[in-house]
Amino acid sequence: MPPRYQATSAELGVIIPPSIPMILYGVSAEVSIGELFIAGFGPGLLIGGALMLFVYVYCRIKGYGKNDGDDRLSFGRATWQAGWALMMPIIILGGIYGGIFTPTEASAVAVFYALIVGMVIYREIKFSDLYRILKKSVISSSVIMFIIANAGLFAFLITRAGVPDAIGQYLKEVLQSPALFLIGVNAALFFIGMFIETSAAIIVLAPILAPVAIHFGVDPVHFGLIMVVNLALGMITPPFGVNLFAACTVAKISLDRIIPYLLPFVLVILGCLMLITYIPPISLTLRDLVYK
Question: How far apart are CA 138 and CA 94, in angstroms?
């Protein structure tokens, strides 16, 4: 297995939930962003639960982690000691969904909060460590931004060539049933997400595909979750998997070492995507309870 890596508080502070794709879809397809956020809880819990179950079963089969429980704290005591760190996602999500700050501003709040907790409360970070942390942050950000810049150029060239629009028009004209339309859209989005940055793909494709989905009787909020979950897979699939490069940079391992362990996780998420696609209540039940 890849070597373990203990991330610092400051590095964990830059991990922000990906709300931007939902916002872009809501604006592009003229769908309520609030409904998209509420509907996202069902798919999020499904995917998170499925991945945790897979990791548990995989570790039991392979025999990993048998001694992880030795000398560890009880659940209650560990939760109490980690309380300040566990407050971070609550502050981030609460601030974003409560309208206190934007997702971009949330990143600054998270880093500042992590710095205070790490230096004042846990005292794991010293002033002498700040230069090393800032240096690592600059290097990690530079690598990721370089990848995003090149992916953006590639997406621009493909968009200028009319590839996404041609795919959208093809799906619209050829697939004549809801089931075929959804499977065709998933296949196309999975392929597109491997090469085109998520935000660009949503901006180009959402206005084309959302009206067709409505024509087939697919709820636009449900279809938005399908698009976002599918394109999010592009963040962990080569060649432009931004999250893969970010993880490799932080953990200091090469991309080729992580690929063999990646495929099962992709398959698990694909299975969840099929459930989300063909079982609308996973996405719409909570939305209907809150808004209707």
Answer: 28
pLDDT of residue 170: 73
Kindly provide the b/e burial profile for residues 242-272, where b requires at least 16 CB atoms within 10 angstroms of the residue's own CB: bebbbbbbbbeeeeeebeeebeebeebbeeb
Secondary structure (3-state) at 208: helix
Sequence letter at residue 123: R
Give the tens place of pLDDT for each residue, 31-70. 888 888 889 999 999 999 999 999 999 988 888 877 776 7
pTM listed for this prediction: 0.69
Q: Does residue 103 have a cis peptide bond before it, meaning omega lies within 30 degrees of 0?
A: no
> How far is Cα 249 from Cα 229, in angstroms, rounded to an integer?
24
Non-local (6+) Cβ contacts of 190 within 8 A are: 230, 233, 234, 270
Please give the Cα distance from 152 to 112 (Å, whole number).
29
- Kindly list the domain boundaries of the chain, sorted by start residue: 9-61+73-280
- Nearby residues of 101 by Cβ (< 8 Å), 6 or more positions away: 95, 109
Q: Are 278 and 182 in contact (CB under 8 A)?
A: yes
Distance, in Å, from the CA atom of 281 to the CA atom of 277, rounded to the nearest integer, reads 10
